[in-house]
Prior knowledge:
The complex is a heterodimer.
Chain A: E1 4-7, E2 10-13, E3 19-25, E4 33-38, E5 45-49, E6 53-54, E7 62-67, E8 70-75, E9 85-90, E10 96-97, E11 101-105
Parallel strand pairs in A: 2-11
Antiparallel strand pairs in A: 1-3, 3-8, 4-5, 4-9, 5-6, 7-8, 9-10, 9-11
Chain B: E1 3-6, E2 10-12, E3 18-25, E4 33-39, E5 45-52, E6 57-60, E7 69-73, E8 78-83, E9 92-99, E10 113-117
Parallel strand pairs in B: 2-10
Antiparallel strand pairs in B: 1-3, 3-8, 4-5, 4-9, 5-6, 7-8, 9-10
Amino acid sequence: DIQMTQSPSSLSASVGDRVTITCRASQGIGNDLGWYQQKPGKAPKRLIFAASSLQRGVPSRFSGSGSGTEFTLTISSLQPEDFATYYCLQHNSYRTFGQGTKVEIK
Amino acid sequence: EVQLVQSGAEVKKPGESLKISCKGSGYIFTSYWIGWVRQMPGKGLEWMGTISPSDSDTRYSPSFQGQVTISADKSIDTAYLQWSSLKASDTATYYCARLAYSSSSPDYWGQGTLVSVSS
């Protein structure tokens, strides 16, 4: 099984901050990775697909990068509506989510 | 508009059976796969399995093989997740999601179905 190690598990940040979340795969997965945002009581929402492609309708402050085993989600300037939990999902072999990163207000 | 509408919350007792549903609209149901995801209370997301509604080709994640059954009825654009004998540990919110093909990441999601299992 492919394991996804996501870090940090939580972070505190202020509006306007640049935020970076990392996912590391236990083996190479090419660019078979998506990033999701989940707010309390709501379904996940896809932000990024194929590691670096922005989902239509998602603000350009979100970006994804990486390939192989190391991937990054960056929020260039954190907005109030971005406080949520973020998950990576590999879909190269079966599917595995990262453990999640909760982004909280500092 | 693409929508996946799931059935309502359920309260069941251990040992009971259950089938929850996910109805697609706004797209050609048989052209996309459907996946199911579990989220236990206060926990992260877990992938359970996928189905192709066009031919019912079904694939389970190893952790869920034999624990649940995924099915679909293409005549009514609906996918299902079912249990034959619920356990308290099945208490969770279950989401369905649409996938462009068997190995893609899901784009649209249902609103979730909360299943509570308690004696």
